Amino acid sequence: xxxLNTIADSIAGYDQNDMxxxxxxxxxxxxxxxxxxxxxxxxxxxxxxxxxxxxxSPINVPPHDNSAMDGFAFHGDSLRAGEPLRLACIATAxxxxxxxxxxxxxxxxxxxxxxxxxxxxxxxxxxxxxxxxDDGLVEIPAGALRAGANxxxxxEDLEQGSVALARxxxxxxxxxxLLASLxxxxxxxxxxxxxxxxxxxxxxxxxxxxxxEGAVYDSNRFSLFGLLTRLGIQVVDLGSVKDEPEQxxxxxxxxxxxxxxxxxxxxxxxxxxxxxxxxxxxxxDVAFWRIAMRPGRPMAVGSLSRPRGDGxxxxxxxxxxxxxxxxxxxxFVRPALRQMMGCVRTEPPLxxxxxxxxxxxxxxxxxxQRGIVSRAADGTLQVCxxxxxxxGVLSSMAHANGLIVLPHASGTIxxxxxxxxxxxxxxx
Length: 428
Ligand SMILES: Nc1nc2c(c(=O)[nH]1)N[C@H]1C(S)=C(S)[C@@H](COP(=O)(O)OP(=O)(O)OC[C@H]3O[C@@H](n4cnc5c(N)ncnc54)[C@H](O)[C@@H]3O)O[C@H]1N2
Ligand code: MOO
Hints:
This protein is an alpha/beta fold. Helices cover 18% and strands 29% of the residues. The protein has 4 domains: 4-37 and 192-341, MoaB/Mog-like domain (Molybdenum Cofactor Biosythetic Enzyme, Chain A), CATH 3.40.980; 44-58 and 161-190, Molybdopterin biosynthesis moea protein, domain 2; 66-152, Molybdopterin biosynthesis moeA protein, domain 3 (Beta Complex); 351-423, MoeA, C-terminal, domain IV (Beta-clip). The chain has helices spanning 21-31, 173-181, 220-230, 245-258, 276-283, 322-341, 394-398; strands at 38-42, 55-56, 66-67, 71-74, 85-93, 107-111, 123-126, 131-132, 138-140, 151-152, 163-165, 186-190, 194-200, 204-205, 216-217, 234-241, 261-265, 284-290, 293-294, 298-305, 312-318, 351-355, 366-375, 381-385, 402-406, 418-423. The strands form 7 sheets. The chain has a 6-stranded mixed beta sheet, with no helix packed on it. The chain has a 6-stranded mixed beta sheet with strand order 16-13-17-21-20-18, sandwiched between helices. Helix 1 packs parallel to helix 6 (322-341). The longest helix is centred in the last third of the chain and has 20 residues, at 322-341. The radius of gyration is 30 Å and the shape is elongated. It starts with 20 loop residues before the first helix and ends in a 5-residue tail after the last strand. The relative contact order is 0.13. The structure holds ligand LQZAQKY5 and molybdate ion (MOO). Ligand LQZAQKY5 binds next to helix 3 and helix 6. It comes from Diaphorobacter ruginosibacter. One of its GO terms (biological process) is Mo-molybdopterin cofactor biosynthetic process.
């Protein structure tokens, strides 16, 4: 990764206590470098991995001209405008059983979907468009189809030697099928990113611990586990730690040993018990920003050196409030981690939807409101908010399917205005 101070120029001129969201994103995009290291995996293990080098198709897909329909294959130039065509059926071609033989202009071959087109034939009439005449001929009504119809050409999906999947592409279920269609059993992928994470705070309870006065159960550890796991990342769960400098330092040092990145939650705003900030300052090259956004104002970004001196470990110190931790992850950490993974697409596309309600906002900060996108009666997309937008209110996050992104410069949104939504799932 590029050291913070070498790209500090890009943030000079901005108030580090009021950093615009776009500036932070741009800064991270410049700081983060993709990890090295690839491995060859079986297709069964390739889902959600990132392609490490262009996959070149070793074959034509489909490998031969074939029929797109169950029907009769014939010479298209036998068709005459305004006249029915009558053909004698001389053979049957089944998928997986190529038929070879000569077919005259007044003959046809009964053919099934996927079967190789007999040599010289270029057109298939679907069964349901034909009738059998009293003398046993196949009759195609006038104007039923054009010459060349219903033939799938050799290589029309992929030509031998062409790029089937490019380096940096995510292996989706469709991409997995595409690789299989090339006859490949293994694929080169980027190695898995390793990300360590832990929660900080004296008030944090582990699951199963008895409730105690002033304490809350650790939710960030679980939300982060979910967010990281969905990215196909190898997660290193380091649990939670009290606001206690020695413990914190031990955990941070342990995390730097073999993780590519560390994510912490809590302790970045600078309360009396927050030792996290001082420690991060001491162990690495870390910037503490207040970002012009809501929720998720305070965040630490930087790098820590590794104990064995080889390279540095990227650090994201997220705010403790449970929704702020998730929103800063989605807004900044997810694209940064995708970039580290070597993924070409780092940001999800935003949807446009009509707000069903007035959303109060003042210009000068980006707001992320929890929303539910649904289809309106007229078929267009609409979005409503999920109630209490407090940065500690996880229930409204859990009920949402995306975040309404209200840009920095925008003021209040009126009901009926169009807004952008970052969906939580299913868009990369
Ligand atoms: N004087 C100021 N105070 C605060 C500011 C500010 O600008 N000036 N910013 C506020 C904002 S915004 C946020 S967000 C929080 C972030 O503070 P920290 O990152 O230092 O987080 P904590 O103080 O440790 O915790 C905040 C809040 O979140 C709860 N929490 C923390 N960790 C977890 C967890 N793992 N699971 C569930 N809940 C957690 C914690 O109990 C606190 O209620 O600072 C504001 N203050
Ligand atoms: O980071 Mo805070 O959410 O704005 O409470």
